[in-house]
Every structure is written in C-alpha cells, then in structure tokens.
Specification:
Four copies of one chain form a homotetramer. Chain A is an alpha/beta fold. Chain A is 27% helix and 23% strand. Chains in contact: A-B, A-C, A-D, B-C, B-D, C-D.
C-alpha cells in the first residue's frame, strides 16, 4: 500500500514548544503524517524551518522543515488537527474548526472543562470518548469533534491513582517539582531558576484540583461524574528541563498492602484497544525499586516518554500512603497524550474516512 | 579594652563544608575568636589554608589561614568548642571533650536525641538550656556541656510552627526541596543533580519526624516533653547551592484567620535575651507577600542567613493551612544556629570565665 | 552636616536588571542618593516596588521602593543621571539630558564609540576624562556631559591588560564564558542554557574587538588614540548567574617573567584619586595562586564585585602568555563601573555644585 | 545463523561511568555481545545490577544486569576486551591481557602514547592500525593487541582538523568547555560546578597538546610521524552533563575560502570500510548553519553521539580561521570510539576467529 494511506494532520501552534514536540513525535508515525503547520501571524507565510526557533535536539524533520506555515484563521484540509496553542490563541479557532468538521485533539486548557468535552487519557478513561457522541448530538456536528488532554502535572497523579481507584481514593495531596519546559518557550527566564526553586505556578494548583477529578470520574448517561475525592495541590518550578516529579500522599478507604499496590501499578494496562495503539507504551506505569527513584533526568524517557515511573511507596502516618511519581511533561503530559487520544479516536472510528485496517477507507 | 577579651574557640571538623561556614561566620565575631582548628588525620599538622579545600566565596580569613590544624584526638585549650564533625567522627570526641570541661556546641546528629542533650534553637526553645544543669548533675560535669542543633531541614519547619503553637499544632506534613550543600563536600555528585531532582535523602525523613517534636516540646522537670503532634516528611534533593525550601501543610486545633497567622510570624522575636544576641537576626521569621516567594537563591541571605522566610499561606482543603518556608541550611540550619546557641549559653553564664559584659571575667 | 549633602541622582531604566543593580549599589552611598527612578511607559506612574520585578536578593531598598517611577520623556531635577537603558531606548534621551545640563553616566552602548565620549574605567584611563572638556566645547554644553562605560565582557580583559601595557601588548585573544545576567531580564530562556552552552552572543565579539582598544588608548590632543593591537574575540554563554570568565592569550613585545607579570597585577592601583573613591576596591586586580581559580561563583564578589581576579598565568606556545580572568559583569562590568566613573567626575569637579569636601558646594 | 555468531566481549571497569556507556552502546550490537563484566574488588562477585550504581537513563540492559562481576586479576574468555579503567587501575591488566592473546581496545590513558600503540580514530587514521603488526612483531604477540582511543576533548578538535590537513595545519589553539561526565562518577562535586565554571582540569591540556599531533600524524615505516604543528590548549569545566564544546582557532598554510572548508567538513567520510562499520555515523562531521550552534545539549546526540558538529566558521584576525566544534564525550570521545576501533579491527581481520561475513569463522 502506498504512503498516501497515512492520514494528513495539521498542527495548530506548530512553531511553539509543544508544537515542536508534536512534530517530533509524529515523525515516522504509522497512521498520521504532518501535512499542515499553522502558526501566528508572525510565522505564517514562512517555511517552517525559518519560522520555528527549534528548541529540541537537532533540527526539525526534513519533511516538515520545508512546509509553509499557514495562518491561524485559514481553512485546512486535514481531517485531524492537533492543537498546541496557548489558551488565549485557542479561542475561537479550536471550536470553529471542530464545527467545520475537523477532529480537534487539543492540549490547550480553554475548553477542557466544558461538560461535553472529554478530558481523555486512554489508559484510564477511554470510556469517556463516548462523550463525543453527546457532543456531536448537542452541537449538531457530524464529523467534527473536540477532545482535550489535561494539564501536564496531572499526568503522574492520575496515572498512579487510576490503578488504586479500586481501593477507594478519598484524599489526594500533590506537591510538584515541575520542569521548565512546562512553561513553554521562552518561558522561564534562566535568571529566575538556575540555583533556585520557584514555589508558585499561576493557575496550576486550581487545574490540578479539578481536572484530576474529572479525569478519574465515570461517564454516567450523558455526563462525567467526577471522582468524589478532595485534592490539595502545591506547585513548584525546578531547574529541570523535562519531567514533572510529584510527591503524592493518598488516603484510601481500603488498606491494601504495599506490595499489592505495587502489583496493581505494574499490571496496569488500560482497556483494549489501548495497549495496541501505536503510541501506547508497553507499561503505562512502572514501579522502580531503587530507593532514590524516579528522577526526572533518568526516568523521563521511559517508554519513549509515555511511561509514568513511580517509586518510594511507603506508609504515611497522616494519609496512609505516600509515594513519588514522574511523567514526561511534554510527551505523556502534552503532545504524546494528544496523539494517543487521536489514535484511540481513529481506532474507534471517530475520524471520518479513516479506518485502522486499510487505513484510509 | 584589648582584643584579648574575645573568647578563644575551637572548631572540630574545621576543614569540611560546615567547618568552613563556622570560620566564615566567626570572622569579626564580637565575643568569640577562632583559636584552634581541628581536623582529621589527613589534615592535621598542615596550615589551615593548605589543608582545607575552601569551597565558600574567596578564601579563608587571614587570621585562620595560618593556624595549624590539630588532630582530633588531642587536648584543646579553648573553653568553647564548635563541632562540625560528621556523625561517625563525632564519637567519642564530643562527649570526651564535654567531660573534659569544654562547652561543646555541636552540629552532628550523634548525640542530638539523648534525653539530657538540649536540641537548642534560641528563639523557640531557649528554656531547654536548663537541661544543661540536669546534664551536668547527672554526668558529674562542672564546666563541660553538650548542646546540639538540629537537622538543617527542620529549621524552616520549626521556625514557622513555633509561632503557631498557641493555636494547637496537630498534624504537620513537610515536603522538602533541599540544597546540595546540605550533603557536605564533596557530597552530591554533579552527575546526579544537574537537570534533575533526587526524591530521597538517607535518614532525613526520620530526623524530621522526631527532632522537630523534641525541639517544639517543653521542659518539664528534668526532661523534654515532646510536642504531641504527628509529622510526615518527604525529602528531595534539588539543584540549588544553599537554602532548604519546604512545602508545609498543618492542621491546627483552633482556626485563626490567615492574617492573624501572618502577624504571629512577623511579630515573633523569641524570649530575652535572644533578640539582643550578636547573631540573632532582627526578624527570625519574615512573611513575604509576593506570590512566588520565598525562593532559595533570592531569600536565603535574609538576615545574614538567619531569617526564615515564609510565603504563600493559604487554606488547604485537607489540612486547613499550607505555606512555603525557607531557611539557609548551612547558616540558620547549621553553623549560624550553633553560634547563636553558644551566644545564648554565654549570655546565661554557662561558659566558664566568660561574661558578656567585660567579656572575659 | 545634614543628610541633605548627598547629591540626588536619577536612574534611567531603573526597573531593569542593571537598573536594579544601580539601586542596590547606591544604597548607603556616601555621596549619592537615588532621588528619581525613570522607566518605560509600562512602569511610569507606579510605585517602584510595584513596577519593578525585583530579581536581585531580597527586595528593593525601602528608600526607593516608594518612589514613583517617572516617564522617560520627562524633565528631571537630579544633576547626575545614571543610564541603565537598553541601546534602543537610550536614543534620544541620554543625549537630550546631557544637552539639558545633566551629567549622564551611561551603561548603554548607543553613544559609546563617539569620538568625544570617553569610555571610562577609572583605574586604567582616568585621563580620558579630559575628553569631557572637548565634548563640552564642541557641543556648547556647560554643565552637561556624557560618559560611558564599556561592554561588560571587556572588563576582565582590559583590567588584566592595562598593567601589561608597559610590555607592549600586540595580540589579544579572548574566549569568554559569560553569565546570563549579561543578557538582562528576562534575557536568556532557561530552556536554552540549563545543561548547555551557547557559543554565540549577538554583537558581542565586535564590541570586544573595538571598545577594548579605545579604552586602552591614550588621550592625545582632543582625541583618543586607540591602542595599536589586534583583538580576536569568541563569546559563549554559560549557565552561570553572574561573573564573566575569559580565557585570554596575549603576545607582548617584551618578555617579562611570569612572576613579574603577577607583581604588576597585584601592585596595580590606578592613578590618584581613584584608589580613594568610595566604590574603588582595595585591589582592582588580584592574582589567585590556586590552580583552579578564578571561578565565577567563588570569585565574582571579590572587592564587593569591583575586583578582577586572575589566575593560571602560564606560557603559551603560540602567544607567549595565557591566563584566565574574571569580573562581576553587572557590578564592575556595568553599574559599579558607572558609579565609579561618576565618583571620578565628582572628585574632579565635573558635577556642577558638588564638591567632595563639603559635598554640596 | 544463530545468535551465537556474535563475538563475546568483556568490559574492564564495567561498573564505572564509561563502563556503563560501553554496556549501553553494545546493547543490540550486530557483531559483539557483552559476555563478561569485570570490576574492582568492591564489585566482584556481585550481580552487575547490584554492583553498578547505574547513572545513565533507566537501568542496565536485562542481558547484563544478571551477569556476575569478575575480579580484575582473573582470566577471561572473551577474545575482545574493552577497557574503561581509570589510568591507575589499567596497569598491569591491559598489557597482561593483550600479552595473553586478547585484543584490548582501551579508553585509559596509561599506554596511549607508547610508540607501538595506535591512537585510533577510524575516520581519520585507520591506516595507523598497521602499527598492530609492528606491536605484535616486537612483543611476540600473535592474537593479542592493544589499541587506544584518545582523550575525549581531542575528539572535536581532530575530527574538525582532519579534513583540513590538506590545507597545511600550522597552529592550533583550543579553549574547551567540558562536560562533567568527562570526570567520571562521582567525579565533579555539584558544589563545585552549579552556577560556576572551573578553568582547570588536571593533565588535560598536556594531553590535548600531544595526543592530537600523534592522531593527526602519518604512519611512516614502523612509526607514527606526528603532525608538525603547534597546539595550545586551555581547558575549562562547565555545568553540562555530556558534550565537550571547543572554541578552535587555526592557522593554515593555504587560504581556502570559508565555504570550501565547510564543504570539506560536510563531505568528509573517512576511508573504506569505515563508513560501513556498524557504529560509524552517516556523517562523521556536520556543519550547522545556525549562528548559535553547536550547543552541547542540542547537538551531542547527533549521529547517535558519533557525529561531531561544527559551527560559526569565520575569519580570525590572528589565526586566519576560527570555529566552534562539539563531540559527545562519552560516546564519540570514549566508549563509542573504542567500539568503532574494535569494529575496524574486526573488519580487517585482527580479531582471531572472527570475520565480518559469517562472523565467527
């Protein structure tokens, strides 16, 4: 079968930090192919390689380097659109494009908490995808859809708590040490963070305390019923390039033994067909037995950035349990998650004209 | 009055990281003067400037650079001895020297938790100094004494909680981001910490969970009655030179308003004569109103490293209150605290032959 | 005599990184007192503490925190004005204010290379100050004047070469490792510099290759005769907060012994009255004998940031001599140098109505 | 053909920083398979995963994790031995094992400069391999051999100069900014290098000034005739994990245009069969056109760590030419180079019983 079986995709905000990560991860993707790169007024009309100040390793892939950046307010031909836009820029484009029939998988926080927009993380809440049917019915869309992924700091929290829902999660406390790439580019000035920590990240704690409950909730009828738990979050910026580390304390209704929890993590896979999706890691969650792990620099690349690493599970005299978890914030926590979300949609027939077998149908 | 009014002091472990900080802080001290520097076999017999790989700014003070390093097992003439020894090396020298009549103010953890050794922090528990009388009586010492300061990470915790004891402290949770200087020299390999965090520091959590309760306790008869509270600590190493940052969550029996707590911090001074001791900062605790402070690099030098900075006090849905606190770990958390402890002893007549007025009596 | 003997000074660009350093260094200055803070449209009209995102230790001095920021295009009352403006913003204000009768000591590069503007560094070219007479005559100014200090990376180069001019400096090669504070704030994004070096700084090499020759030149008649030497510079950014380190190679016409050069450095003081100016360090240049110094973090604070530290002098098989030098880039290399320049002008009667003895005359 | 066609290899010093890199790079190697791991007394007898404090990403490969570490003074069965020993530990083992019939490819500096030991870098001096015949004849060895790779900082220098030898290289000046991994583990204390540069690395400059000339020399009869050029090196340590950056200045007898030099770099491949060896990168040298590259973090992984990146070629008023070059110091500069050296030996029939086609013959 020819190359043309790949589904053409567009990247909104293609020149930014997360946009670059999308382009990097989609290189050699078996189903999708970057066909359109879309940027701000400053970038549009220029070749991607000129418009983007590439901040990842090496340079942009050859296949994308020569693409012309299109303006944000244009019309696009790709059925699937990934959005790496900042919140402010996402409005009204994401909604406009979904209404125009595109499947939009977004990393922006703008529409994340709308009742009919699923906050998808395939391993833990693939069933929320059915909300797209509600969305389409309510909005009169046929091929269009809008699905979101969450704030990047939530990832290690919900990935480690999903396998524990069976024990009754009641109280969740999260203290983060977040990588600078979470702030985009140029993002955090080096004068603010070298030899330093910054114990504040605007808006982050609020997101953690709400989005996590929506993600861990259950689809009941036409709506997500949030997890009935209380979350307290404190967010800190650390001089780390990539990888958000969280100290998590949790109280559970049941009292599983520590090794039972570890087995729950190591055996966690998510529902079919998630484990067989192209970007799904072999192990969504891995427990590290060394006493000083996970560490951002050494564990962020696990599972090509899609595996969440956990360590230091121990009893807590206040909460019952505490541990440390880590996810790669721009892969599992942003672009990689959006791509996995789109793969789940493709596998479930939500992308018009594309079927996984035979691919462009 | 001549220079000779200053009390000669000795530094055990003078060439190490904390030893150097003692020497730096005692430069131009109004009461004390470094007269003896004491080190390991490797160092002894050499001039201090040659034996010490000076790791602080510039080089060692001229007055100390030329002193000959004495061996650890010798006899010393200084009535007051500061110990910057690692735990293993402190045994049996600290106890031996106290028994021989020296006042020993130690930073080592070896004897910290002995029932008759006060874990002093003048602003918050100056009354514990009376334990020295118990100690002397029990051990048959006349001029000798052994007082300790605590683990460095406890400092921002107990400095911020002491003013809140009036509200009934019940549960304390601490998540730290600790500076590399806390591990001494050579300490943390750079390959382990640049672009990284390490979520484990051996023995640290246990110290935090016990020493803090002893420090915040009350002297009752001949013994310290520990604070009746529960502590849960999680310790992380961060790529920061100096300054331990802690995210503290606390539940209080009473429910003071946030601004009442802030006033309690800003007005906290400690009992007389502590505020007038040479190394006491004008404000032991300061509350910073900026939303992103305290930060290690920008706030560790407050009050010449002796002021604890607090920020981000807010309500916590789980504990009631949460905030961020910071202390300079090798000044307030080590050498500076030991010196303040010794000043408190001097001011209270515990150092034989030395009185603050007229100084050498 | 009352406090009012201090000369009121204004800071242009007071809220930026260098502006903050001016304010920090002028705190408790014996002659000058910050009376006016001047900023961009965004800042003007607000209290300084609100308008400035203070990036140095602690916060702004109380005496300045409450000053209202004035707009750049206003008229000012202070006889002496320090300019911390970026190049683009300096035009036309610096020239306008000098023409209006103010003495302007600028850190901006805009007018630095004008023939009648001295590029002052008191220890090495105090005689260039006479160019102000030429400037006043040519431009019809009476009390106004414009003097500049150089690019910050030149400082360790010219401070180390000035004492060697007696041997005939012929070829100078400089490879820098420059601190991030040299780029101002927000300046270098942390994503660009943590775990990294950037081997390019726009415009920097050209400045080094020309300004250094003007500074090391001699005033001959009405003009500076540049040093007749060739300079080759390569500039690199390093993950260091403050302190520019340079590897310097130099060929000299004469062949002094290494210890003769070291003596020339250690004995270098600059002409009277420079050594007695308030901001002059005891030693403008110090030679460090340890084999691994100078180092930015440990030596930048020497002489309160005004002493240049040199080390590792050795023979070079190509140039003859090579060594390493370091200066604090925002103190000696920017604000501190401007203040020293102003002190030299004050001491020489160039500031109308101000004399050092009796101060406001 | 079965798995057993892979040649069993042993790693001396397998638990150290470079030993780990060997193990990482040999994972899935098409010709070689790690069969023996050899370490110090402290490590021997333990499983590799327990004995090694793994400092690279993730953990050791499963196939090696369970190997028992053998003591250094034992006998080994692998025909090919890679040595990652520090200089002191290499004596007498490397020579002893070569004499015992093993081919030893070493990264240690111990025997590097012996007249009959080739300092191999396949792309630039594959012809030096013939020195092994001289070595065998002189020492009476039949299957044994000892080949070395050079100091890691030389790599970007010789890789960039080899394509310029045709123009007559006369003077070479190198100023380095070297990564901390070059010092091994634990290596550089974090207190020495965060927010800092250290302008000294013991023994490094001497190695650069001699080894480079041997490597760029020519085999003439039974000996290497060193390149007739003069080298001046200054070495600095930077807070960078991996990747040695060098500012190189060079004078050439001929005066090629800048674009001619760039073409020479981009077209450089090395002699056959080097380009087809498994670890040879597609491009040994790449020229980057962006004005601020190469950068360690962004370019060290080029060609899986085997490509040297060059940038900023420009004219120098003193030397004629200057540029910036970068190589990954523990891959191209250490383990990767040793492996490429062994592949060259294998391809040329120097490893007894192994032929590339049919592999174990």
């Amino acid at each position: 079968m020819s190359m043309s079986v790949k589904l053409p995709v567009a990247i909104l905000g293609a020149t930014g930090a997360v946009g670059q990560r999308f382009i990097q991860l989609l290189q050699d993707h078996p189903w999708f192919e970057v066909a359109e790169v879309i940027g701000s007024e400053r970038s549009s009309g220029r070749a991607y390689a000129d418009a983007a100040h590439w901040i990842l390793d090496g340079g942009p892939p050859d296949a994308v380097a020569g693409l012309n950046v299109k303006p944000l307010d244009g019309d696009f031909t790709s059925p699937l659109i990934f959005s790496a836009l900042p919140k402010e820029a996402a409005d009204p484009h994401e909604m406009r494009l979904a209404a125009a029939g595109h499947v939009v998988a977004t990393n922006a926080s703008l529409n994340r908490m709308l009742d009919d927009v699923p906050l998808l993380l395939p391993e833990i809440n693939a069933s929320h995808l059915a909300l797209v049917d509600v969305q389409r019915a309510a909005r009169g869309w046929t091929t269009g859809a809008l699905v979101a992924n969450s704030n990047c700091t939530i990832m290690p929290v919900v990935m480690s708590l999903a396998p524990l829902l069976q024990y009754g999660v009641e109280k969740i406390q999260v203290i983060s040490a977040q990588a600078i790439s979470g702030a985009g580019y140029p993002g955090v000035p080096s004068l603010d963070i070298i030899d330093n920590m910054v114990p504040y990240i605007g808006g982050e704690e609020e997101k953690l305390e709400t989005e996590s409950l929506k993600m861990l909730g259950t689809l009941s009828g036409d709506a997500i019923q949030w997890l009935d738990a209380v979350v307290s979050a404190s967010c800190n910026r650390a001089p780390v390039i990539d990888g958000h580390l969280v100290n998590v304390s949790v109280s559970l209704r049941e009292k599983p033994a520590l090794d039972e929890i570890i087995r729950a993590w190591d055996n966690f896979r998510g529902p079919d067909p998630v484990p067989s999706l192209p970007s799904a890691p072999k192990q969504p969650v891995q427990y590290l037995t060394q006493q000083d792990r996970p560490q951002p620099r050494r564990d962020r690349a696990a599972g090509k950035g899609m595996t969440t690493s956990i360590g230091r599970l121990r009893e807590c005299p206040i909460f019952g349990y505490k541990f440390v978890a880590l996810s790669h914030n721009t892969i599992r926590g942003a672009a990689g998650c959006s791509i996995l979300n789109a793969e789940l949609m493709a596998a479930n027939g939500y992308i018009n004209g594309f079927s996984v077998n035979g691919q462009l149908s």
